[in-house]
Known about the structure:
By secondary structure, the chain is of the alpha/beta class. It contains eleven helices and nine strands. Strands 1-2-4-5-6-7-8-9 form an eight-stranded parallel barrel, surrounded by four helices. Strand 1, helix 1 (29-35) and strand 2 form a beta-alpha-beta unit. The longest helix is centred in the middle third of the chain and has 11 residues, at 157-167. The radius of gyration is 18 Å and the shape is globular. The protein starts with 12 loop residues before the first strand and ends with a strand.
Amino acid sequence: MQFWDHFKRDKHLIIAHRGARAYRAENTMSAFAYANGRCDLVEFDVGFSRDGVAVIIHDDTLERTSDVREHPEFKPPYSVSDYDHDMLKKLDFGSWFVRDDTFGTIKLGTASKHDLLELEKQTILTLEALLIYLKSNRMLANIEIKDMSNTAFDDHAAASVLDIVKRMQMQEYVCISSFNHKYLKQLHDLDPNIVTAALQEKSHPEDLVNYLKKLSVSSYHLDIEITSEALIKELNEAGFYVNVFTVNEQKDIDQLFKWGVKSVFTDFV
């Protein structure tokens, strides 16, 4: 069995983008726990600490989603890959969410400030720890490998992620995506059975269908800004699953599903 076999062909899927990030701090255990039972699968990002630990974080730097500025031992530009995992574990990745209320959910009362303050400190997650949680809760996931170009991890980021997925015996429960399409080719060479997806924004590669076939991906994950009904139809007819990010308006979700999109990534679940 492969990843997409877990879903009926005609089922529309809701993907929790970085966990339930409108209600909990993104890419933290609290976000994935909140998303559990509220979505069909979760999406998260994987980068690497200086000592090569695969960690769950979207940005290349630590400022936006941690209290790194309160720790004088960390220095600008606060790059994730400049610090060992043990150092990163000192940081709080949850308190900023209450302070910033980025999605206005605390102000609206759809996210409880009391409940958020009662949460334990949210430390940086490792890929291994998150997969253990997902496996124990029978949750499926989209793993995005961040573009590690110009870092020491570029050549083996894909292999490292795949190795952890296999050690956790999660091959059939994950789809692995990246904006760096080189990683997708590497994954296919390492394991032709692993399900992969090409991420794309701003514009499409030329001769898109043949391009995706050469990558050996099963899915195309594209920004809503470059999505059209005609394109979705073309990709569906070519046998690809089309999954669109980031879609937070119900009218847009309804329209995309009507057009034939398989899944939408959303911050609200």
